[in-house]
Amino acid sequence: MPDLLLELFCEEIPARMQAQAAENLRKLVTDALVERGLVYEGAKAFVTPRRLALAVHGLPAHQPDTHEERKGPRVGAPEAALQGFLKAAGLASIDEATIESDPKKGEFYVARIHKHGRPTPEVIAAIVPAIVRDFPWPKSMRWGAASASPGSLRWVRPLQSILCTFGPETEEPEVVRFDVDGIASGDVTRGHRFMSEGTIRVRRLDDWLTKLEAAKVVADRERRKDIILADAKDLALAQGLELVEDAGLLDEISGLVEWPVVLIGAFDESFLDVPDEVIRATIRANQKCFVLKDPKTGRLANRFVLVANLAASDGGTAIVAGNERVIRARLSDAKFFWETDQKTNATVPLEERLGKFANVTFHEKLGSQYERIQRIAALAKALAPAVGADPELAEQAALYAKSDLRTEVVGEFPEVQGLMGKYYARIEGLPEEIALAAEEHYKPQGPSDRVPTAPVSIAVALADKIDTLVGFWAIDEKPTGSKDPYALRRAALGVVRIVLENELRLNLRALLKELNLQLFPIELRAHVLYLIERISPVRSIVEEVALTKLLRDTDPNSPPAIFNDLYAFIADRLKVHLREQGARHDLVDAVFALPGQDDLLLIVRRVEALGRFLATEDGRNLLAGYKRAANILRIEEKKDGVAYDGGVDLGKLDQPEEVALADAIREADPRIEAALVAEDFEGAMAIMASLRAPVDAFFEQVTVNAADPELRANRLALLGDIRAITRRVADFDRIEG
Fold first, then answer.
1. Which of 237-251, 479-493, 613-627 is predicted most confidently?
2. Pair 237, 303: CB distance under 8 Å
3. Rounded CA gap, 97 and 86, in Å?
4. Are 620 and 612 in contact (CB under 8 A)?
5. Which of 70, 192, 212, 553 is most buried, most CB within 10 Å of its CB?
6. Which of 160, 153, 155, 128 is nearest to 14 (CA)?
7. Which helix (H) or strand (E) holds 242?
8. pLDDT at residue 208 in the model
9. Minimal CA–CA distance to 643: which of 702, 705, 708, 723?
10. How many CB atoms sit inside 10 A of residue 735's CB?
11. Radius of gyration of the CA atoms of the chain, in A
């Protein structure tokens, strides 16, 4: 079957746009083909710094023919209706329509339309120009004389040529002819900007790939990445070193070169006094180079790997020398910043450094960074006992944790914030717990990032994230759709992961007594108190009197009820997290539907126990029995206009099976409650499994809708007891199956 090859050649495609552009081209073209009945076998997109291409394999030579029946007006309808029908159906006269008869509607016209499929090249020629003109670049431009016209072509950079061929492997392909703003399609492309001259005529994909490679262009992005990674590792190995792999940098570099040539350079060993992370940050950010490490020491070596876009006549000597000059200058700056920070930290007390944050606004509605640091410190101190940390140490760590934000190194390299705090804390001789908290309190910064496990780090990390959530919810700056400028989803997921992975249980009664609410602006105090109660791993009951008094003392126009929404937001993050871990979405919803589910750790354990229970035969059968009971109740309650919430009259039980079921429920209920209080969810499920047999027997032998109204109502109440006892562990209505 024929194949399509399409290449759009332009001045430049920025590396950050390439991957999405390739995916967009593949989807736009293949979707358009399928919509027109042209089903294909496979498609692959290619992208380099100068070209965007697509190969579609196994296309038919023609569109399939289509047959359509279109019903028209009745016979004898007004002329205007007939003419409208003829125009819509594409008929020249009413004689081309057939007449059909319907016993109710009488005779009416029917158009039977047969359309011959067009040759595939004609279809391609019709769809590609529109795709090119409307291509969804994040940023695009007009150029040349045509740029004065608002309707002229916009492209990421000036579009220079279009290659488009179509045909089977065994024949010479044809050029698919079309025009986009004066750029005519053809069968030629160009090779490397510097290492190739003139145009190259190509036929199909294999020919295109081979001739481009001969012209010093590796068209396949993944192959360029493989070449770079393999050659970099080989050069490192030859020096007795190891490559520090960086997937993000590798992806970026592969978008900067069409012919990757990997070289190695060096810098002065004296720069190794600077922390490894700072060296790596400056070399990566400024020169897009990889760093190498000594496998014996684990520290960086004074070598780096760069990737050129050409094979230079001098073997790359001049290219390496140029990169070494730039890296030497940048590392000199980094070393100066590092040494300056050490001197400053040795002579300026922490209190004075913190004072500098008073003039730094965190958010116009939430005060300065200094005020935020004070809030975090108070909350970390209050959280400390519950997570096994020393309160004074947690407070000190929170006060110190963000001090590196005002240092020279972090000012130049923001990506090493926190990490530099750890280095500076060690240099100042502070406890290791404070050093670790400085680095770890930002974690986790993504789903694959680790969570802090040291108690002091946990206290500061939780305090930091809770303060962020409280503050932005209080000023109604919540995420909307895909927009989350303050990374609140990440903060909420961080709370969830820290709690779950450290199996935290917090005593909020002590926390609320110790929390110094005076550090919060008056309008936020009720919100803080309420939120801490709601989002914590263990929901403790806050005295109504204390909460009422606090609310009375704060702004009455800022009720803490707005944080119901915040708790739902955090619960949603927990749901997402559990589903990503493989938990069934319906089981998560079934547990969340229960009132008072504020203990994140116990929610997870309950979901896990429920999943194991429903995987057993007893669990599946009990669920089926529940569903049957719930369906009967739903129908009868709607019909009767009353709710059968249980309360069986034991004296009116008539048959042995209903007596046995009532006895089983009465006997199981306190045992299930005791198991739940003891947080023994497995035990609660096991007790519930004992109801399977009496429930099965009840439905086999007992008619619920008995003729006697009192007997019927009592049996419906018994079904209400089944519903009530199962809802002690989960809302079975939400469970599928």
1. 237-251
2. no
3. 9
4. no
5. 212
6. 155
7. strand 242-243
8. 97
9. 723
10. 20
11. 35
Give the integer Cα–Cα distance in Å for 521 and 513: 18
Q: pTM to 2 decimals?
A: 0.73
- Joined together, the tokens standing for residue 657 give 């099976």
Encoded tokens for 247: 């997937």
Of 363, 441, 357, nearest in space to 395 by CA: 441
Superfamily name and number for 608-734: Isoleucyl-tRNA Synthetase; Domain 1 (1.10.730.10)
Tokens at residue 86, please?
A: 């003829």
Report d(CA 632, CA 654) in Å as an integer.
Answer: 19
Report the number of secondary-structure helices (H) and strands (E) in the chain: 27, 18
- Whether 516 and 375 have beta carbons less than 8 Å apart is answered as no
Question: What's the per-residue H, E or C state across 634-695?
Answer: HHHHHHHCCCCCCCCCHHHCCCHHHHHHHHHHHHHHHHHHHHHHCCCHHHHHHHHHCCHHHH
Long-range contacts, stretch 408-412, CB < 8 angstroms, 24+ apart: 408/336, 408/337, 408/338, 408/340, 408/341, 409/278, 409/334, 409/337, 409/338, 409/341, 411/337, 412/333, 412/334, 412/337
Every domain of the chain and the residues it spans: 3-62+119-214, 66-115, 221-346, 363-370+388-582, 608-734
DSSP 119: B
**Residue predicted with more confidence, 524 or 718:** 718
Asked if 694 and 709 touch (Cβ cutoff 8 Å), the reply is no
Mean pLDDT on 275-289:
92
Q: What is the mean pLDDT of residues 646-675?
A: 90
Rounded CA separation 726/687 (Å): 11
Question: Please, what is the average pLDDT of the chain?
Answer: 87
Question: CA 659, 691, 596 angle in degrees (round to 5)?
Answer: 115
Give the distance, in angstroms, between the CA of residue 650 and the centroid of all CA atoms in the same chain.
54
| pLDDT at residue 546 in the model | 41
Enter the tokens of residue 479: 């995420």
Contact 404, 421 (CB under 8 A): yes
- DSSP secondary structure string for all residues of 389-447: --HHHHHHHHHHHTGGGGSHHHHH-GGGTTHHHHHHHHHTT--HHHHHHHHHTT---ST
With beta carbons less than 8 A apart as the criterion, state whether 382 and 515 touch: yes
pLDDT tens-digit map of 492-519 = 899 889 989 999 876 443 343 444 343 4
Q: State the average pLDDT over residues 224-230.
A: 97
Residue 154 has pLDDT above 80, yes or no: yes
**pLDDT digits over 10-55, tens only?**
999 999 999 999 999 999 999 999 999 999 999 999 999 999 999 9
Question: Which tokens is 138 given?
Answer: 């994040």
Cα atoms in the Cβ-side hemisphere of radius 13 Å centred on 541: 4
Q: Tell which residue, 166, 177, 242, has the closest CA to residue 203.
A: 166
